[in-house]
Amino acid sequence: MAKNGSGKSQATKIAGRSGVAAAKVKPARLKSAAIIRAGSRAQAVSITPGAAKRLVSEKAERFTESVIREMTRQAQLHGAMNLAQGFPDFSAPAELKRAAQQAIENDVNQYAITWGAKNLRQAIARQATTWQGMEVDPEKNITVCCGSTEAMIASLLAVTNPGDEIVCFEPYYENYGPDAILSGARPRFVSLRPPANGTGEWTFDEGELRRAFNRHTKAVIVNTPNNPTGKVFTRAELQLIAELCQQHNALAITDEIYEHIIYDGAEHISMARLDGMSERTITINGISKTYSVTGWRVGWAIAPALLSNAIRKVHDFLTVGAPAPLQEAAAVGLSLPQTYYVELAQGYRRRRDRLHAALTEAGFKAYMPRGAYYMMTDIRSFGFADDVSFTRHLVKEIGIAAVPGSSFYSQSGQGSQQVRFAFCKKDATLEEAARRLLRIGKKRN
Ligand SMILES: Cc1ncc(COP(=O)(O)O)c(C=O)c1O
């Protein structure tokens, strides 16, 4: 992981409230990388740091590579278990795999309609109605993208102008920071505070949220169920956000990728369902998490026609389209029976409880999530200087990769005693992790 001057993590740090970018990436590698082959002899060409700097955009310099994906590489380097990145280590549903194979067998090899294969859009619209009571026209309101990741950046590029502000709850899924920078918008963060005793909800201050909205606000990003906190936003909280969007003529861009992974009777409510919000909400979702196929890269944005038209244009020029055969398989996934979703949530609840018990036994304060498949923890009891030295110890000495909490915050110092674990793993993986975690406890004593 790259380091800044203080030796702290190069977590994805971005412009905070001050609007001052934390430019921390130096294009140093370019200096020695340029090699020209002349005949059989390699000739090294040196580019001065000043010249090299000009070759990299200011935007790209304002954020670092993904800490989460870097932790996956660390796990591979040290042969550690990967509880860092949120991808399952178990199989995807057989029906989806068969459908993907069949689609390739049937020569579904060429570009699909750029905004998505018709049958997939129909399946998405049907499910949005079944699960959330939303009225969605598959011809006008849906753009299928390369994962919800592309749906988010395409949406932001489609709606923001320089100087616009995006309200974002913090800690946040690390992509949103660079997404805001790439789209030329300024993020404004509103704190989510952990429950004092570890079992309640993460909450935000109403006054702080109200103050974050102003005449520059273009949109608020709401990720529910939430990564990394596991918070499921309540109806009252969503109603407050909706009221502010309407007051300030702002959009809500909701990331609902963990829609079906909820626990303890929590209810997932789509913002678009609330009064007056369907015309100002972009609902983002995808198949990665619900069907355990994070590598397939199929997601979508549901939006009113005006916004969909803009998103479709951006999407077309970004990627043209999502993988055609996998769109066919996604349509099959969206047609699985209700029992699939019940079992999905039950399986994750079992994994959540197992990891929570293991982390608690090992000496962590683990915040119990109500949704998604991550567990934020407080590591103060271990006496490490910060989250980065702790996760380094964890990956090298204990054999477990986790994500430093600071990577979910905009300012350095924040989250420095927090670490996130993913539990989208087989029972056997979690059992082995539980055994290894106990070794930190022994080391500490
Ligand atoms: C909140 C959130 N949104 C989006 C994504 C990425 O989704 P996709 O695979 O559809 O791009 C993730 C993956 O971890 C996530 O946690």
In short:
With 445 residues, this protein is of the alpha/beta class. It has helices at 30-33, 49-54, 58-61, 67-78, 94-105, 118-132, 147-159, 176-182, 206-212, 235-247, 305-319, 324-333, 338-362, 387-398, 427-444; strands spanning 35-38, 41-44, 81-82, 142-145, 165-170, 186-191, 217-223, 251-255, 281-286, 299-302, 365-366, 374-378, 400-401, 403-404, 418-422. The strands form 4 sheets. A 7-stranded mixed β-sheet has the order 4-10-9-8-7-5-6, sandwiched between helices. A 4-stranded antiparallel β-sheet has the order 11-12-15-14.
Architecture blueprint of SSEs:
Layout: H1 30-33, E1 35-38, E2 41-44, H2 49-54, H3 58-61, H4 67-78, E3 81-82, H5 94-105, H6 118-132, E4 142-145, H7 147-159, E5 165-170, H8 176-182, E6 186-191, H9 206-212, E7 217-223, H10 235-247, E8 251-255, E9 281-286, E10 299-302, H11 305-319, H12 324-333, H13 338-362, E11 365-366, E12 374-378, H14 387-398, E13 400-401, E14 403-404, E15 418-422, H15 427-444
Parallel strand pairs: 3-13, 5-6, 5-7, 7-8, 8-9
Antiparallel strand pairs: 1-2, 4-10, 9-10, 11-12, 12-15, 14-15
Helix pairs in contact: 5-12, 6-12, 7-8, 7-11, 13-15
